[in-house]
């Protein structure tokens, strides 16, 4: 069974936010409008965190693109009272939108703040409804949602490979999620962390590799590469 | 109607047989508040949780604060009634029934607030259909479920002999009282059985209440968030629950005393004794608070310090220092001296503690969420009118339950009062009381 993971090279990242936009478009993430957005009710499965260090003029900023980390020991799954958030066979942390009761316990317990709430019912006025991805369902008001590592693309690729009677190759999946595909700096990699030959497992062993908030013990499956950490 | 047939404690039955204009005024006022709050909730239900002040990264606010606060206030009822019953403290009798009713109200209206906090409330039954036992919220469902059941039984059992008396003496509502009296005749066997059951329930109530408040605390301490993930939270919540519960009970006692003319029953002695209990808890509160904050301050872990500073010096400083004032300074100053431990003094102290403990719950829930562990745009949380309206409606609903309760049942356990004083002296005392209040 593969164990999907991601590697993001911060030394290559330019902070252009194309990944965020690609994610928004690919996953039918609703646009909540400027007022709701100012009230911090916007929904972003992917987000680029500006990490500031030092005082002006000796300030350094590092951009940290933040998808869901799909932790090995996810705090969100632990606290969900109805099992709406779960880990699937291949290690992806997913949400069952039909079961979520909107208690938001997972939101409070995610140390990375990746989980978003559908605070209202969001409209898809014309022509935006024409741009929806058919493989991704729309989420009802009240449920919690987050990055899936584009599980629908993964499933599609697996189906195609199975139809041709072969295994998924590493080259096929490296740029599979929408964020990776879009990245103009080629800073992002996706793949099977359990496969010692895969790009991600090779990069995860790199001396530059680290993960965010490693001391909270969540064992994230998303690694970062950086010569120097902020 | 003639009150004499009720015997020496006739004054306790007065609100049941006669209704004054103020009752209807109070009823109208409370119903209006509840309708307003209910309307606010319907608005929230149809529009989504987005019309409250909640947003990211603070998805829990006033509703979760109310949830802990109301259930905690109810604990004071359990404690006073069950502990004093087990230790057979003689002065408890006029206090217990109001205390037990407070527990029931606290549990019911606390739990309702969880539903208000859900973004998908129509799916609340998923908690029973697909429970995941690993989640602290499911521990809460189990603990609060049994607590509600036990506290209802514990309120009801000691009422049976009084209901039977109403059945036998009142010309109206015969079927209602006959149903609730469960065929009580007052035989020695029934009495023995009832007393054993009440004692058993009192024994059961204490561990259940401890479990409920520990599990409430564990919702927070099982997470990995700074200043939530703390071993002190279980005992801290239990202590805080007893603290706010005693404070609320003093206020309830004072209101009942004034409105129902129970001066002969709820005497300065009771307020003095409750005041001493409250004083002890005030000191315990200080101890726990110091224990919580000093360990964080000394360790100086950056994530913990961010929340610490937000609470003491940041945007939550007004609430924090108001909490210190209302939970410690005011009650301690009033209760430490016998001179100010009067009825008025204890009521002010009690009300101050109730306000302070609501603030403390707020200080526990919100600042931790306002300091995410990764960089984030400055989070804000301003509860809006919807949340305040629903909160007011909950408080009004509790008042309404009390209002209707005293119309249907004596709020002081009459048969226990009689047993305590003995039939002979009771008659004399009762006659004197009647003369006093006439």
Describe the protein's architecture and organization:
The complex is a heterodimer of chains A (230) and B (438). Chain A is of the alpha+beta class. Chain A has a single domain, classed as Alpha-Beta Plaits, CATH 3.30.70. In chain A, 23% of the residues lie in helices and 18% in strands. Chain A has helices spanning 18-26, 34-38, 75-79, 105-109, 151-163, 170-173, 178-182, 199-204; strands at 4-9, 47-53, 60-66, 85-87, 93-95, 116-117, 144-145, 188-192, 209-210, 222-225. In chain A, the strands form four sheets. In chain A, strands 8-1-10-9 form a four-stranded mixed β-sheet. A two-stranded antiparallel sheet of chain A has the order 2-3. A two-stranded antiparallel ribbon of chain A has the order 4-5. The two termini of chain A are 35 Å apart. The mean pLDDT of chain A is 92. Chain B is an all-alpha fold. Helix content of chain B is 73%, strand content 0%. Chain B contains 17 helices and no strands. Chain B has helices spanning 14-17, 21-47, 62-86, 93-117, 126-129, 136-156, 160-169, 174-181, 188-221, 233-259, 268-299, 302-312, 317-335, 343-369, 385-408, 414-421, 423-437. In chain B, α9 packs across α10 (233-259), α10 (233-259) runs antiparallel to α11 (268-299) and α10 packs antiparallel against α14 (343-369). The longest helix of chain B has 34 residues, at 188-221. Residues 424-430 of chain B have low confidence and may be disordered. The interface between A and B is large, with 47 and 45 residues.
What would a concise description of this structure say?
The complex is a heterodimer of chains A (230) and B (438). Chain A is of the alpha+beta class.
């Amino acid at each position: 069974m593969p164990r999907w993971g991601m590697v993001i090279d911060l030394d290559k990242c330019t902070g252009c936010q194309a990944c965020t936009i690609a994610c928004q478009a690919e996953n039918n993430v609703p646009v909540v409008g400027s007022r709701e957005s100012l009230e911090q009710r916007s929904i972003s499965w992917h987000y680029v965190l500006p990490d500031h260090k030092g005082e002006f003029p000796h300030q350094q900023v590092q951009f940290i693109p933040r998808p869901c980390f799909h932790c090995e020991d996810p705090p969100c799954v632990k606290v969900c009272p109805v099992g709406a958030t779960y880990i699937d066979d291949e290690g992806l942390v997913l949400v069952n939108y039909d079961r979520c009761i909107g208690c938001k316990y997972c939101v409070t317990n995610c140390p990375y703040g990746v989980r978003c709430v559908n605070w209202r019912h969001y409209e898809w006025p014309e022509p935006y409804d024409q741009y929806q991805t058919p493989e991704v369902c729309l989420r009802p008001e009240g449920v919690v949602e987050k990055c899936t590592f584009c599980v629908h693309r993964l499933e599609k690729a697996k189906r195609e490979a199975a139809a041709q009677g072969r295994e998924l190759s590493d080259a096929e999946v490296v740029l599979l999620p929408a964020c990776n595909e879009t990245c103009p700096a080629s800073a992002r990699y996706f793949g099977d962390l359990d496969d010692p030959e895969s790009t991600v497992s090779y990069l995860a062993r790199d001396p530059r590799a680290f993960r965010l908030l490693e001391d909270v013990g969540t064992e994230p499956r998303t690694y970062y590469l950086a010569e120097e950490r902020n | 109607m003639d009150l004499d047939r009720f015997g020496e404690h006739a004054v306790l039955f007065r609100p049941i047989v006669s209704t004054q204009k103020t009752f209807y005024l109070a009823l109208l006022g409370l119903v209006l508040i509840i309708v307003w709050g209910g309307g606010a909730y319907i608005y929230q239900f149809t529009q989504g949780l987005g019309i409250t002040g909640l947003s990211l990264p603070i998805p829990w606010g006033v509703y979760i604060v109310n949830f802990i606060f109301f259930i905690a206030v109810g604990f004071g009822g359990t404690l006073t009634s069950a502990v004093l019953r087990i230790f057979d403290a003689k002065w408890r009798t006029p206090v217990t029934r109001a205390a037990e009713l407070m527990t029931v109200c606290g549990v019911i209206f606390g739990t309702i607030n969880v539903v208000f906090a859900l973004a998908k409330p129509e799916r609340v039954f998923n908690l029973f259909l697909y429970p995941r036992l690993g989640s602290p919220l499911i521990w809460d469902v189990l603990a609060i479920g049994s607590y509600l059941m036990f506290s209802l039984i514990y309120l009801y059992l000691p009422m049976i002999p009084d209901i039977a008396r109403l059945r036998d003496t009142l010309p109206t509502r015969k079927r209602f009282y006959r149903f609730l009296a469960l065929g009580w005749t007052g035989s020695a066997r029934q009495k023995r059985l009832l007393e054993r059951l009440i004692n058993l329930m009192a024994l059961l109530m204490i561990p259940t209440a401890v479990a409920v408040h520990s599990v409430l605390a564990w919702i927070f301490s099982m997470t990995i968030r700074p200043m939530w993930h703390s071993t002190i939270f279980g005992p801290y919540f239990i202590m805080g629950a007893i603290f706010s519960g005693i404070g609320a009970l003093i206020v309830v006692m004072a209101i009942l005393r004034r409105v129902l003319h129970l001066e002969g029953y709820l005497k300065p002695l009771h307020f003095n004794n409750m005041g001493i209990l409250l004083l002890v808890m005030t000191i315990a509160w200080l101890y726990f608070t110091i224990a919580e904050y000093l360990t964080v301050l000394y360790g100086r872990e950056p994530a913990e310090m961010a929340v610490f500073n937000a609470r003491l010096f940041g945007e939550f400083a007004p609430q924090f220092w108001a909490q210190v004032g209302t939970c410690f300074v005011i009650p301690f100053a009033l209760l430490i001296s016998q001179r100010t431990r009067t009825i008025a003094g204890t009521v002010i102290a009690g009300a101050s503690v109730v306000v302070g403990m609501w603030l403390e719950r707020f200080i526990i829930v919100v600042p931790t969420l306002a300091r995410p562990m990764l960089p984030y745009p400055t989070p804000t949380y301003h509860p809006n009118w919807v949340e305040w309206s629903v909160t007011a409606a909950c408080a009004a609903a509790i008042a309404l339950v009390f209002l209707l309760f005293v119309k249907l049942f004596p709020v002081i356990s009459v048969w226990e009062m009689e047993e305590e004083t003995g039939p002979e002296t009771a008659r004399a005392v009762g006659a004197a009381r009647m003369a006093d209040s006439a």
